[in-house]
Fold:
Amino acid sequence: MATADAAAAVARIDHWIGGKPAPSTSGRYGEVWNPATGEVRARVDFASVEEVDHAVEIARRAFPEWRATPLSRRAETMFKLRELVDSNRRNIAELITLEHGKTLADAMGEVARGLENIEFACGIPQLMKGEYSEQSSRGIDVYQIRQPLGVVAGITPFNFPAMVPMWMFANAIACGNCFILKPSEKDPSASLFLAELVKRAGVPDGVFNVVQGDKVAVQRLLDHPDIKAVSFVGSTPVAKYIYETATKNGKRVQALGGAKNHMLVLPDADIAMAADAAVSAAYGSAGERCMAISAVVAVGAVADPLIAAIRERMSRIKIGPGMEEGNEMGPLITREHRDRVASYVANAAAEGADVVVDGCEDAVCRRSGFFLGTSLLDRVKPGMRCYDDEIFGPVLSVVRAETYEHGLRLINENPYGNGVAIFTRDGGAARQFQFDVEAGLVGINVPIPVPVAYFSFGGWKASLFGDLHMYGPEGVQFYTRAKVVTSRWPDPSTSKVDLGFPQVR
Ligand code: NAD
Structure:
């Protein structure tokens, strides 16, 4: 956090409350960097407790009217929002690239995957349909309806500043809830632009709000009695804290955490295809994806040719500012994070790993932004920090396994269970892997198995705290609660007093 005077000249990023920008008076703010230049781009307000309370109150007041709005009308606003996001893909992507650093093409991909969730939410009348049993007992019908929860909150990470908010708010508001988004303070502009589009789509003021900030804002959302549910995506220690605190306060919570995604390569795999996949999934978005592959588990004799093929491809990756056409990998999010990632590579040899390619020696590190070259480590083992920690940068480790069982054991013993992939030509082996592996998202010859929006996304183990996965059908379940109605329209002539427990036969 910086002080108010120092940054008076820099552009200011405010909250969005009640359908309009809402400047903060907290006097607290953070700096938003352009990672490609290493310069401060803007300052973002950090909400006070009172400002969070104000946003929640505005949302609480908007809720009765929004939940009573017909499903067809809510669907119509989703269709309009779909058109607006579609026609503004590039504008959103540019905001992402300027603050996150990923390439424009990658940012366009992020917007496309976020948009899928709005498209899914266009089907809300179908998705919120209940169930009906006629004649459950004589003259009695039983039916279940799903109703929105009220005011719900979403707390999102820096690495997908548009997609992850769309994972959450599309379903949440389509279901009839009012939403408070607390985006990452590192790249907050895309969420504000999305808020404008939500308004232009015809969603009433107060239904969608953005509160900028740090842990002060998050803590208030976790404590506020009018917040009924919290969706979180971020690192595992924070996810665990969010889950424990918000559930203790009686809220419904889905908290997605960090990852250490493995790619198991069997001896029969197509080496070129596996190398293409490993390089794409490890270094895309500079490794700052929760579904990035960070460990290749090479079974048997596949290790040497695979490492050679990966190394050869790494040398061709074009690293540079994300706004410049042709670059394939941009900088990391902050200088501190870049230095932290570099420290894993610097320590790897002392831990016993072979440093095949040292990204810290890449000429790109001498540029003014937060750049780091791509690194490849071999003979990495559990117990080394470069294996045990989520590095979240362009560092790929190769772990050598003797057999399929050995490789599987490594993966299943890892505390994380987000994404995992197997590369093989053997359908039986792939099917066995799908049966055996302890992870929520499995790719078979697919390195980044992020499900389409009509399935749900979520890891296992330390990658998710809570019961329901995010977006898709489980997202609708998360943002609604069931009410079961038992109904009789009696014939008064059959009515009588009966103190026995209700029977159905
Ligand atoms: P982060 O945990 O630092 O921050 C996430 C959010 O929590 C931000 O909005 C931040 O302001 C807030 N926050 C941070 N520290 C807090 C604290 N002490 N108390 C309360 N709130 C706090 O995560 P990040 O660095 O923004 O994102 C990267 C992490 O997110 C990685 O671990 C990555 O694997 C994970 N991630 C997971 C998924 C998934 O689907 N599982 C998706 C994307 C990112």
